C-alpha cells in the first residue's frame, strides 16, 4: 500500500448526471475515512463534493438516483416551464432544507477549504468560490457552478451573473496546484482517452446577448476541454497526479434519466473508489 502526501489535493470533474460516478467514489472515500486537506470541484462535482465535505455518506447518491426516481426533477418540461432542465426548487430549496437536510454545522467546522468553480458571465473567466458561514450564498454558488449553459438560468452570486464552471475549467487541477497542492487525486467522469468530437462554433449575438465575453468562452469550449483532457493524461503519465475514472464504457450522458444506468455508474464509482482507498493512504 502506498501513502499519499498530507498536502494532496482532491479535484472533482463535473459532467451532469455522469457525476453519479463521483458520488460513488466519494462514498467509498468516506467509508475509508479518506479526507483531503483541500478540495476543488466543478458543476456536478461541486454538488457531490458538498456531501463529502459535510461527511454525509450516500446523500449525493440519494440526490442523483433516489430523488430522480421519486420526483422526476430532470425533464424538458422543467426547461420550458421553469427555465432549467433540472427543477431548481427540488434541488436547491427542498433537498438541502427538508428532503435530505445538509449538515451545515459539520461543513462549517471542516477545516479543509472547499472551492467551487463558476464561470463569470461578465468576464468569461473562471471564479473559484467558497463559503463556510452563509447557507444561502453556499447554495447559490453550488447552483451557479451547476447551471449548464442553454438549459439552465443564469444564477447570481454576490450580484454577479454566473454559469457552469465547466465552460472554462472543467478539470481544475491547475487551480489546486496554484493553491499549493503540487500532487493531486483527480476524479474524472470520462473514460481514458476520451476526446469530445463536438465542433466549436461562434455563438450568435442573439444568445446571451448581454454577455459577449461569455459567448467567446462558449465558442472555445470544446477546444479548451480537450486540451484539459490531454493535460490530465500527460500529468498522469508524469506521475504528478493520480486519476480515478470510469473503466467501463460510458453509457450515461449529461442529462441521462435512466435509473438503471445511473445505478450501474454509481456502483462502478464506489468500486473504483474502494480499490483506490485499499491501495493508498493519506
DSSP strand (E) fraction?
5-15%
- Radius of gyration, rounded? 18 Å
Helix content: 40-55%
Runs with pLDDT <50, length 5+? none
Sheet bearing the most strands, described?
Answer: 8 strands, mixed
User: What structural category characterises the helix and strand content?
Assistant: alpha/beta
Rough shape? globular
Topology as a string of helices (H) and strands (E)? EEHEHHHHHEEHEEHEHHEHE
Written overview of the protein:
With 282 residues, the chain is of the alpha/beta class. It has eleven helices and ten strands. The chain has helices spanning 20-31, 44-53, 59-71, 76-82, 88-99, 104-109, 135-145, 173-178, 212-219, 221-237, 259-279, and strands at 2-3, 9-12, 39-42, 114-120, 126-129, 155-157, 160-164, 184-187, 241-244, 280-281. The strands form two sheets. Strands 2, 3, 4, 5, 6, 7, 8 and 9 form an eight-stranded mixed beta sheet that branches. The chain has a two-stranded parallel ribbon with strand order 1-10. Helix 1 packs parallel to helix 2 and helix 1 packs parallel to helix 11 (259-279).
Amino acid at each position: 500500500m502506498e501513502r499519499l502526501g498530507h498536502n494532496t489535493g482532491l479535484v472533482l470533474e463535473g459532467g451532469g448526471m455522469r457525476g453519479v460516478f463521483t458520488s460513488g467514489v466519494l462514498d467509498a472515500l468516506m467509508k475509508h475515512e479518506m479526507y483531503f486537506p483541500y478540495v476543488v470541484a466543478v458543476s456536478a462535482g461541486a454538488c457531490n463534493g458538498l456531501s463529502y465535505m459535510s461527511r454525509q455518506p450516500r446523500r449525493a447518491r440519494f440526490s442523483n438516483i433516489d430523488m430522480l426516481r421519486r420526483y422526476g426533477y430532470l425533464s424538458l418540461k422543467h426547461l420550458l416551464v421553469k427555465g432549467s432542465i433540472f427543477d431548481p426548487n427540488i434541488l436547491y430549496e427542498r433537498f438541502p432544507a427538508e428532503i435530505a437536510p445538509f449538515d451545515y454545522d459539520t461543513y462549517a467546522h471542516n477545516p479543509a477549504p472547499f472551492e467551487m468553480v463558476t464561470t463569470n458571465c461578465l468576464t468569461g473567466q473562471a471564479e473559484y468560490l467558497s463559503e463556510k458561514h452563509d447557507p444561502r450564498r453556499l447554495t447559490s454558488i453550488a447552483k451557479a457552478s451547476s447551471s449548464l449553459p442553454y438549459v439552465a438560468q443564469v444564477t447570481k452570486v454576490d450580484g454577479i451573473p454566473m454559469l457552469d464552471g465547466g465552460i472554462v475549467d472543467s478539470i481544475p487541477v491547475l487551480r489546486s496546484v496554484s493553491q499549493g497542492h503540487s500532487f493531486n487525486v483527480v476524479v474524472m467522469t470520462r473514460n481514458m482517452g476520451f476526446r469530445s468530437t463536438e465542433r466549436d462554433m461562434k455563438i450568435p449575438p442573439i444568445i446571451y446577448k448581454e454577455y459577449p465575453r461569455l459567448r467567446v468562452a462558449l465558442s472555445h469550449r470544446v477546444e479548451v476541454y480537450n486540451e484539459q483532457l490531454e493535460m490530465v493524461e500527460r500529468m498522469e503519465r508524469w506521475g504528478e497526479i493520480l486519476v480515478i475514472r470510469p473503466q467501463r464504457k460510458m453509457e450515461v450522458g449529461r442529462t441521462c434519466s435512466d435509473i438503471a444506468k445511473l445505478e450501474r455508474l454509481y456502483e462502478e464509482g464506489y468500486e473504483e473508489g474502494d480499490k483506490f482507498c485499499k491501495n493508498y493512504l493519506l
